[in-house]
Design a protein that fits this description.
It is built from 9 helices and 3 strands, in the order αααααααααβββ. With 217 residues, it is mainly alpha-helical. It has a 3-stranded antiparallel sheet with strand order 1-3-2, with helices on one face. The radius of gyration is 18 Å and the shape is elongated. It starts with a helix and ends with a strand.
Length: 217
């Protein structure tokens, strides 16, 4: 009965913290599947500048992604077709990063601490990078909070370790990951081969091993 009560309390706390972090834009980004006014503004500006010839409909489809990629190529940006903070800044749209940076660092550090506090510093940054790689990937939510609190995504959320006292190194690792360091090599998954129970995760292609974790795509 006590375990059930603890489980319910953890779920409620998760929902409260998730809402707190998603109330504001935590990682300005539009990608395939995104909708809304930001996408409309991206399409409108790129159309006016000759990068985009589709409809200004607020739907981030393949034509929009291709136009963003073309714009990125012409402006010295990473040409991934994702309108993240650097691309939005070049387009002249709000990035949302200045007001939310503290929240980004804190939540990412909590996740890193819960998942990798016993790992090397490089391993901690790599876990943070995987979370950010998911934010950019079309198969995952496009906010840090959305990725971290996606049901069943991270053991630390399920068992409550995300709420443990955060080590200083995890805050530094979160900042390094947000600043672009990706020791994982672009991975979107990782696991500990000794403790992983999912047969599915073992089918993913391993691209890097850091400490006890293997990183996959």
């Amino acid at each position: 009965m006590l375990n059930i009560s603890k489980r319910i309390s953890a779920i409620i706390l998760s929902l409260i913290i998730c809402c707190a972090f998603t109330e504001n834009t935590v990682f300005a980004l539009s990608k395939l599947g995104s909708r809304g006014s930001e996408v409309t503004n991206i399409q409108s500006r790129l159309k006016n500048w000759g990068y985009y010839n589709g409809s200004v409909d607020g739907v981030y489809g393949q034509k929009t992604a291709d136009a963003v990629k073309y714009f990125q190529q012409k402006n010295g940006l990473i040409a991934d077709g994702v309108a993240g903070p650097a691309t939005l800044a070049k387009i002249g749209l709000p990035t949302g990063t200045s007001s939310s940076n503290s929240s980004d660092v804190t939540l990412l550090a909590m996740a890193i601490n819960g998942e990798a506090r016993g790992e090397s510093y490089e391993g901690q940054v790599a876990v943070g990078a995987v979370i950010l790689n998911r934010v950019r990937h079309s198969s995952f939510p496009n906010t840090i909070a959305g990725v971290i609190y996606q049901p069943g995504a991270f053991t630390a959320v399920d068992d409550g370790q995300i709420y443990y006292t955060v080590q200083d190194s995890c805050y530094s690792a979160a900042r390094d990951a947000l600043n672009g360091w990706d020791p994982s090599g672009g991975a979107i998954y990782y696991y500990n081969p000794v403790t992983a129970t999912s047969a599915w995760i073992r089918t993913r292609t391993i691209i890097k091993t850091i400490g006890k974790h293997v990183f996959c795509i």
